[in-house]
């Protein structure tokens, strides 16, 4: 996923004849539809994995994603690229299953650390991916898609030979379309009143977080004149910091301060980091505040651990599907919200020229999440 980040917005911009404002609006539609597919398919795959096991769902998703990157690499028009992005939203909707896998094999008291390791794995991917994608994109904007396809297909083969099943047959549940659909999956959160407030915190966090994949490439190119190589290196720095935070800090911080304190600290760091991104007059300040923003990464594992404690083993897939539904809902609105705000803020003749507006909005959302989290976790 990380390899194509530096080039996908620029590829859309190329189809738009280099019009950044118009490309931002179109790219927002891309992000919204991708999130719609995540919203629709994640709970289905999560519930299906509760029924048939985690392994087949993960392997088929990896294989499908690899084939889709081949499709996007060959897309001759913006319309075909859009179709490919829709398919990638479906084939990459297995993260709920991956988190359920971790819940299967990890004791409740150790899950925050294990979820942090998953975040560190993402961080490592975003160290290598964007840096590689930026370099490859400087050669040919479609080359990163071919490399991503190869990586995903190799990953599916690795999983086929190495990944064991985590959910034994006696722990599986029957599949129900009523609970597997996106709206039905959210019933789990309503049926456990302890989860409802945390779900609201998660929604605000996920909405704010969509500003990075939606806006960073276009924002950095517009405000700091960064090319694909510089963006790739910067995203690699973000990945390094995230990997250090989630792989090295989550476990000791949770052990020392508890899940509630680390959750609140992560939201605080995100609020400060996004506000700094909005205000930064130079790219160097973006780099300076990247470690601060990366500390936002301690939020996710703490949230996952708090929520997973409150459901039964046979409900872990449904819980992760519900979380993915929340992410999908916010992902549908977030890209359009932030890209439209950016497009309006930089359009000639606008009342206020404020390129950092999307990051101001993201920081405000995280501040609201912090206030809500302080309240809903006060008895934890």
Give the N-terminus to C-terminus distance in angstroms: 35 Å
Quote the beta fraction. Answer: under 5%
CATH class: Mainly Alpha
Question: Helical region count?
Answer: 18
What order do the helices and strands follow? HHHHHHHHHHHHHHHHHH
Question: For the record, what is the CATH homologous superfamily label?
Answer: MFS general substrate transporter like domains
Query: What structural class is derived from the secondary structure elements?
Result: mainly alpha
Count of the domains: 1
Principal-axes geometry comes out as globular
Residue-averaged pLDDT: 84
Q: Which spans have pLDDT < 50 for at least 5 consecutive residues?
A: none
Describe this structure in words.
The protein is an all-alpha fold and 380 residues long. It has one domain: Growth Hormone, Chain: A. It has 18 helices and no strands. The chain has helices at 8-15, 20-52, 54-73, 78-91, 95-105, 111-139, 143-162, 177-180, 182-185, 187-191, 193-209, 211-224, 228-257, 259-279, 283-294, 299-308, 316-346, 357-376. Helix 2 packs antiparallel against helix 12 (211-224), helix 13 packs parallel to helix 15 (283-294) and helix 17 (316-346) packs antiparallel against helix 18 (357-376). The chain is globular. The two termini are 35 Å apart. 55% of the residues are buried.
């Amino acid at each position: 996923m990380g390899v194509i980040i530096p080039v996908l917005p620029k590829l859309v911009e190329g189809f738009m004849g280099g019009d950044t404002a118009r490309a931002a609006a179109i790219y927002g539609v891309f992000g919204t539809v991708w999130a719609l597919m995540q919203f629709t398919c994640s709970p289905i795959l999560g519930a299906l994995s509760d029924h048939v096991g985690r392994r087949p769902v993960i392997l088929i998703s990896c294989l499908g994603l690899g084939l889709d990157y081949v499709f996007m690499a060959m897309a001759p028009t913006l319309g075909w690229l859009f179709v490919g992005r829709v398919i990638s939203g479906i084939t990459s909707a297995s993260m709920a299953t991956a988190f359920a896998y971790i819940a299967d094999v990890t004791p409740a008291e150790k899950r925050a650390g294990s979820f942090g390791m998953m975040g560190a794995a993402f961080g490592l991917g975003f160290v290598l991916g964007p840096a590689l994608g930026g370099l490859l994109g400087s050669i040919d904007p479609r080359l990163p898609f071919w490399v991503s396809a190869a990586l995903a297909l190799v990953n599916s083969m690795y999983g086929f030979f190495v990944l064991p099943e985590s959910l034994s047959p006696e722990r599986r549940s029957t599949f129900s379309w009523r609970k597997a659909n996106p709206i039905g999956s959210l019933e789990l959160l309503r049926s456990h009143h302890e989860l409802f407030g945390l779900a609201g915190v998660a929604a605000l966090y996920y909405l704010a977080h969509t500003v990075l994949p939606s806006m960073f490439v276009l924002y950095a190119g517009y405000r700091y004149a960064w090319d694909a190589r510089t963006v790739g290196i910067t995203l690699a720095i973000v990945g390094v910091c995230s990997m250090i935070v989630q792989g090295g800090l989550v476990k000791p911080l949770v052990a020392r301060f508890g899940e509630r304190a680390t959750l609140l600290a992560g939201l605080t760091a995100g609020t400060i980091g996004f506000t700094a991104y909005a205000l930064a007059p130079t790219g160097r300040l973006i780099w300076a505040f990247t470690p601060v923003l990366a500390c936002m990464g301690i939020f996710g594992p703490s949230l996952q651990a708090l929520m997973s404690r409150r459901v039964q083993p046979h409900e872990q897939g449904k819980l992760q599907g519900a979380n993915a539904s929340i992410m999908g809902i916010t992902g549908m609105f977030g890209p359009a919200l932030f890209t439209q705000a950016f497009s309006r803020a930089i359009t000639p003749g606008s009342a206020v020229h404020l390129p950092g507006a999307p990051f101001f909005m993201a920081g405000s959302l995280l501040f609201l999440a912090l206030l809500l989290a302080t309240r809903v976790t006060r008895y934890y």
